[in-house]
Write a structure and sequence with these properties.
Function: Involved in lipopolysaccharide (LPS) biosynthesis. Catalyzes the transfer of 3-deoxy-D-manno-octulosonate (Kdo) residue(s) from CMP-Kdo to lipid IV(A), the tetraacyldisaccharide-1,4'-bisphosphate precursor of lipid A.
Catalytic activity: lipid IVA (E. coli) + CMP-3-deoxy-beta-D-manno-octulosonate = alpha-Kdo-(2->6)-lipid IVA (E. coli) + CMP + H(+)
Number of helices: 17
Shape: globular
Helix content: 25-40%
Strand order of the largest sheet: 3-2-1-4-5-6-7
Radius of gyration: 21 Å
Protein name: 3-deoxy-D-manno-octulosonic acid transferase
Number of domains: 2
InterPro entries: Glycos_transf_N (IPR007507), Glycos_transf_N_sf (IPR038107), Kdotransferase (IPR039901)
CATH architecture of the largest domain: 3-Layer(aba) Sandwich
Family: Belongs to the glycosyltransferase group 1 family.
CATH superfamily of the largest domain: 3-Deoxy-D-manno-octulosonic-acid transferase, N-terminal domain
Largest sheet: 7 strands, parallel
């Protein structure tokens, strides 16, 4: 009761900020849906309910979601919503803020929550209305662990409402136990399971480098070091609202074309003509990885992101170069052989010359996960 009242006052206090942010393109769908229930009714069908935060986590669910006839999926971000909508067997919603959940959540077969989405009201209400609650792909990063321990008393209350915890590693299992989790099984990281769906084919003119999932300041930092006479470079910003901003940055370094522009075609394949190409189309990375000669993984050269998933590139055995700030992806980095880590962007060309093909070490037991959800 105290938690609900506290959340209600937080909501009231935040209303002016929420209204202001709802006019920004990044939040124009998620904030009205999550905090005002605009076009965001409860799920209609009593089925399996999956919840994830953003694009990466939602995309990782595809391999599991495909094992079910129909599912409900809730998300937090716009990019997560678009990813979930691409699954033909899914009914998709934004997860409302905590104070709305007692009135919004309906009964379901199982609630399956991805990674660290530990919302108290979500599990508390779902425990009463669903047959089973599961925390999937559970992990506690090195950086986050001390913060979790400070609020152990709170997480103990959350874990009282979680029936099964499927952890990524033994290290995560021990940390989760410290926070009060019970019935933990180490199942591996579902992000190591990747089944590519190639929808477009490309032709390159020179050795191709992909700057994947880049963030603010990374594009210019990396492009300054690359020899654009020697390589073609495709830049893939992490957030679509930055497409125009990144396009302007790239034009400083040479003639730039856009994937969503009028690319020429030869024998049913799209031709990348320019030395610089902006990928301004969501879900296109996997198609580009098929012809890549090297991937520079973004989110790791600035210290406020924590890196991104290297598994997709490693599936195609593409050499991968990363910055040193990958603290949120340590578990996945450990699953890939030959990722080249550099601590100084000035060492980029040296790393390119000495890079080796990447390789995924182990793959998760997907059938075991599906069985635990369904049984």
């Amino acid at each position: 009761m105290f938690y609900y009242i506290f959340s209600f006052f937080i909501y009231l206090f935040s209303l002016p900020f929420l209204i202001f942010l709802s006019f920004k393109s990044k939040y124009k769908k998620s904030i009205p849906a999550r905090f005002f229930l605009y076009k965001n009714p409860p799920f209609k069908n009593k089925t399996y309910w999956f919840h994830s935060c953003s694009y990466g986590e939602t995309k990782a669910l595809r391999s599991i979601v495909e094992k079910f006839e129909s599912v409900n999926i809730s998300v937090i971000t716009n990019t997560g919503y678009e990813a979930a909508k691409s699954y033909k067997n899914s009914d998709v919603r934004f997860l409302p803020f905590e104070i709305f959940l007692p009135f919004w959540i309906r009964s379901c077969e199982s609630l399956v929550v991805m990674e660290a989405e530990l919302w108290y009201m979500l599990f508390f209400i779902a425990k009463k209305r669903c047959k089973k609650t599961i925390l999937l792909n559970a992990r506690i990063s090195d950086r986050s662990y001390p913060k979790y321990l400070k609020f152990r008393w709170f997480y103990e209350r959350i874990f009282e409402n979680i029936d099964i915890v499927l952890a990524q590693s033994e290290k995560d299992k021990k940390r989760l136990q410290e926070l009060g989790a019970k019935n933990i099984e180490v199942i591996g990281n579902i992000k190591t399971y990747f089944k590519p769906e190639i929808k477009r084919k490309y032709i390159k003119k020179k050795p191709l480098i992909i700057l994947a999932s880049t963030h603010k300041n990374e594009e210019e930092m990396i492009l300054k070091e690359l020899d654009l006479k020697k390589y073609q470079v495709v830049v893939v910003p992490r957030h679509p609202e930055r497409f125009d901003e990144v396009y302007k940055i790239m034009k400083k370094f040479g003639k730039t074309e856009r994937i969503n522009g009028k690319l020429k075609m030869e024998n049913g394949k799209f031709v990348l003509n320019n030395d610089l190409i902006l990928c301004d189309k969501m879900g296109e990375l996997v198609n580009l990885y098929t012809i890549a000669d090297l991937v520079i993984l973004g989110g790791s050269f600035v210290d406020n992101v924590g890196g991104h998933n290297p598994i997709e590139a490693a599936y195609f055995n593409v050499p991968i170069i990363s910055g040193k700030y990958y603290f949120n992806q340590t578990a996945l980095y450990n699953e890939v052989e030959n990722i080249m880590i550099i601590d100084d962007i000035k060492k980029l060309n040296e790393a390119i010359m000495s890079s080796k093909r990447s390789k995924i070490k182990n793959r998760v037991d997907l059938d075991r996960i599906v069985k635990l959800i369904k049984e």
